[in-house]
Amino acid sequence: METSYSLTNIDETEKFCNDNGIEFSCVRHPPVPTVETMIEEVKFPDKEVVLAKNLFLKDKKKKTLYLLVAKHDTVVDFKALAKFLKTGSSNIRGGDSDKLEEILKVKGGSINLFCILNDNEKKVQLLVDKSLYGQEWLGIHPMQNDATFAISGADMEKVITLSNHEPQVINFSELVVLSDTPKYKQQKKEKKPKKEKKAKDEDLHELGITISREDDFSLWYSQVITKSEMIEYYDVSGCYILRPWSYGIWERVQRFLDGLFKQSGVENSYFPIFVTEKALTKEEDHLEGFAPEVAWVTKSGKTDMKEPIAIRPTSETIMYPAFAKWVQSHRDLPILLNQWTNIVRWEFKHPTPFIRTREFLWQEGHTAHATKDEATKFVYEILECYAKTYEEMYSVPVIRGIKSRGETFAGADFTSTVELFVPSNGRGIQGATSHYLGQNFSKMFDLWFENEDKKKDFAHQTSWGFTTRSIGAMIMIHGDNKGLVLPPKVAQVQVVIVPITNKDNHDEILESADKVFATLKGSGIRVKIDDRKNYKPGWKFNHWEVKGVPIRLEIGKKDIENSEVRVVRRFDGKKFQLSTEGISQSLLDELDKIQAGMYDKAVKERDDRMKNAATWDDFMSELNQRNLILTPWCDQESCEDNVKERSKEESKQAENAGEEVLTGSAKTLCKPISQPELAEGTKCFACDSNATSTALWGRSY
Amino acid sequence: METSYSLTNIDETEKFCNDNGIEFSCVRHPPVPTVETMIEEVKFPDKEVVLAKNLFLKDKKKKTLYLLVAKHDTVVDFKALAKFLKTGSSNIRGGDSDKLEEILKVKGGSINLFCILNDNEKKVQLLVDKSLYGQEWLGIHPMQNDATFAISGADMEKVITLSNHEPQVINFSELVVLSDTPKYKQQKKEKKPKKEKKAKDEDLHELGITISREDDFSLWYSQVITKSEMIEYYDVSGCYILRPWSYGIWERVQRFLDGLFKQSGVENSYFPIFVTEKALTKEEDHLEGFAPEVAWVTKSGKTDMKEPIAIRPTSETIMYPAFAKWVQSHRDLPILLNQWTNIVRWEFKHPTPFIRTREFLWQEGHTAHATKDEATKFVYEILECYAKTYEEMYSVPVIRGIKSRGETFAGADFTSTVELFVPSNGRGIQGATSHYLGQNFSKMFDLWFENEDKKKDFAHQTSWGFTTRSIGAMIMIHGDNKGLVLPPKVAQVQVVIVPITNKDNHDEILESADKVFATLKGSGIRVKIDDRKNYKPGWKFNHWEVKGVPIRLEIGKKDIENSEVRVVRRFDGKKFQLSTEGISQSLLDELDKIQAGMYDKAVKERDDRMKNAATWDDFMSELNQRNLILTPWCDQESCEDNVKERSKEESKQAENAGEEVLTGSAKTLCKPISQPELAEGTKCFACDSNATSTALWGRSY
């Protein structure tokens, strides 16, 4: 006879675990009804725990119920899931809460894997994400969402076995792809190739983005980066494949920024990826900032190394011992070096492609100067390079500022920054930073020189970095509900030509289109012609819209008769006719207009959302409306800590009260360099002290 | 009372170790009287052992005797050492062999650290390389050079303590730098800056290369790469810093090669540096080739990872699972991807900057095609890109060929290659390879597609790589006894202007020089003016010669009067006057001539040393004269193995007989693509079989 269970709270869950030899560690936390809050609140001090997203679903037609347990960042595409479950494409829905409470004995915000133990009559089918198997630690709520148990992947399987449910194991990364190319992939699964077929209208829909930014920003983002072929997911957590569509952007940005650096006298070099423990641990503040995220190599082949070697999380401690060797006199200064490399930071926060990844690409510049003046001047010279890159290449406006003490780079005297704003989710995002390190590192690494007065002096240093995160920021800021929107200067393809043919005029139209293609290519426009026969124009429109190509040219029978082409602009959807006479110049002008238009649009969207607040209540009200807020501020670290704590608390209360607000704590993005005048005696918006400057606040990535 | 020792052979050394609790492992090998032979012969199967170079020295004046023990690849600069020991700069000499045998009880080819135990009367001072301390395993001969004991760094210290000698510990990397800039560095050591002084004539000599290629090729190479500021040594073994002088070359080569790839339709991308054990171990041959060299990450922060993650030694196993996702139909092919990345191969052979390093930079291209024909065509298309890069950028001629079975890339059907020749040491060097992988990986990684006949077929693949090794090859091939010689197309600085001034005409001459500088810069020449006041022209000539700048322009009083400049070409030393009228075009032409002249010179030097041999005796005779040899060959793997073995053995016998020959085994560099006709019935030069092709043989890096 099968055992029947009834688990309704943490105590009963604990007993169940103890009775069945399931080891667990427990953390308590505020209630986390959503995946977002869970990610933010649930942290185990000593282990990397994979959190789960839990959904109670039903098949509208067949009335089947499902408990779906998947990795927290899984993109669950209901249409694809419906296909997998072999039901109609729009039949999968959220399950009813009364059934949930009746059968699984849990409320909406607390669904978890243990629930399935309560389904003693097997009314619910269990769907489990393949990627949860074999995990070291899984986080599962013990029937209530103010606590999380970490159990092993093996014990997860044990729970399932004890529940007497036969789970359906789903590879969600396949499911996502499935929605793009259902026929082929199914063939692949069955290992029996069948006849290829032309794309039908139903595929059209699946090709595009099926979620709006407003409904689920992170799902929208996932769809955009995968369906546009920027990113391929990879089987090491936090690592992603940059496909040519995104890497091409990086190449163009690299070339632009590298040119600016070279104008400033910076030279490129390459320093090793490995650093000894001894060098890495030399500057204490710096170490403290990076130590928990360092990846260590301890074995080569089958041999243990005597001393572990770290992979660079940044290269101050790798470069400065060499600087010290090279410098004797002030004549050996400045040293202005840069490198374009990969970097590894083994973070435990949940990863987001481009934005937070365990390996990423960047440039890191490191300089040494004879004087503080020269060094700080250089800090801002580089900051301008970063601002220029965002503004001119990405069409993204920036706010230049100085980081608060609490947000300053580990080991720096001050950090300057360019800050960006994502209108659709109201979050700030740090664009790039340029640090003045003072003499902190030069003293540790013995980087001194004989100055003009023949006295010994330590070098003044700067370091600065710009990463592939910038691509993610650009996607979030410009992307829309049809997909990617690319600024012409970075786009891999600036103009795509779609010939509108039918079988009577196919060759004739293609000939004209080829001519236009050759003309544009000859004038340096990055142009592509989509002359694939097995796709219809509508499918192609959709395809290139998802991929964000700035201009689509349609060439049909009538266009040719009139010596015209039809132009469709991606970023604002504007459509118009252009004469083929002088088409290259017209389109070059058009691309410039788009580049500028996208920038202006982003400025307007940001400025509309940048509010002033002089009091706490105004501050919270603007924050909950997903705005950035400028406030008079006392510039004290303890005050910022309080604001973080209090804003988090109050927004949670607002959410619990049913308001639609963004949760999480607000922090300073920066103290803008361009400061408005503060009336004498102005108080800090958050505490009793006098305000000393104006700070920009928001929720931030 | 102090113990006195007398160790003369392996048995007595073993007893000493056992008596004193010193743990050791022992390997036996042929006698290795030189560092070169030691590196080649002494291998521990299970550990990474640092080998030592041991020198018995004396101070000519003071009669002091020294035993110097340093890491095998240490550059021991006697002048710098003399300075360190506070004796006259040319007073350090090799010690006399009778003293060596009398006091240390060992013969010349067997000197080792244990010897010092025999010096019971403390007649010899002990000098120890700082970098030997803290090593996991050190290899030391047990008083005879046909065996090596591996003992720990801690036990090395124990041996020294037991010997009752107070060692002087030397940081040799500092010593090398010291010889460049003695005054400043000494100040640095004493931490008391003294007055800076102008470089004197004696510094002049130390600035330059002090060893000839013919006398000690590897010491010459070390001096060239450090004194030219291409390389800075680093404290992780096998990793080196690429300074702007070398990285700039890489940038230019990258841009050139990347342009060629793009013309062939290749797109750039970026795949993660990490690979799971599961993916890495999928293709067995491939794994077998790389497994012993893989670096494993097992910890992040203080947390052990559940599964170790490998750092890419190459990316076949990282990329092809993604390829498999992307390909369904023949219409999705070809995939032509490339990435520019770092690579880690934890080799235990002794490292050489650029040539064999544990981390290096490269591009790796990976493609998938529908047919074998298309794939193999692409293999050669890429090989031509590599040949072009060597020929046109590096002015280095190549021999295109196919690798023998034994030298083929692990997992490939065949490997095509471009092979280079270093005239001054008679070694071949592999330039770059392009592989046809067949369907070996596509079958393992499920990379199949539906072909035009609607049948399932596996993709045909290629992979190909070009590395920073190419810079090392260029240095070895073009460098001369004055230092680096750079081809204009890759040189960071193409023309250096040295104004020849005295205090009367300083400003006037500088003004003219600046004008020439501005003119050249304006026409795109990479030009530098060396107007430093604290160095004399002679010093500057030397400085820029060591750095290999293709053209030096001298501008003095007389030149200005005649509206001329003096031109000195680095590669052949040719000197002549040029009119300042049309100077840019004259110099651009001159740079082209130098680029071509360097290529022609290298072709001639190689062709003079490429010999034919039809018999074994002829083959060995040419090999021992450091030539490359073309032979009729049977193309059998077992035959090549025999040749390797036999050539090694015979050259060692020749060396033992007192002949000056290069030792080590010969192998095939390639079977050249352009094959001479073989007369029917021609026999293999090395065995009884019939020859099937002509192979190129040599000793190789």
Report on the structure:
Two copies of one chain form a homodimer. Chain A contains 22 helices and 31 strands. By secondary structure, the first copy, chain A, is α+β, with helices and mostly antiparallel strands. In chain A, the strands form six sheets. In chain A, strands 1, 2, 3, 4, 5, 6, 7 and 8 form an eight-stranded mixed beta sheet that branches. A five-stranded mixed β-barrel of chain A has the order 17-18-19-31-30. In chain A, β13 and β14 form a beta hairpin. In chain A, α8 (201-207) packs parallel to α18 and α10 packs antiparallel against α14 (372-393). The longest helix of chain A has 25 residues, at 583-607. The model of chain A is unreliable at 177-205 (pLDDT under 50). At the A-B interface, α7, β10, α10, β11 and β12 of A face α7, β10, α10, β11 and β12 of B. β13 of chain A pairs antiparallel with β13 of chain B, so a sheet runs across the interface.
Structure summarized in a few sentences:
Two copies of one chain form a homodimer. Chain A is of the alpha+beta class. Helix content of chain A is 35%, strand content 25%.
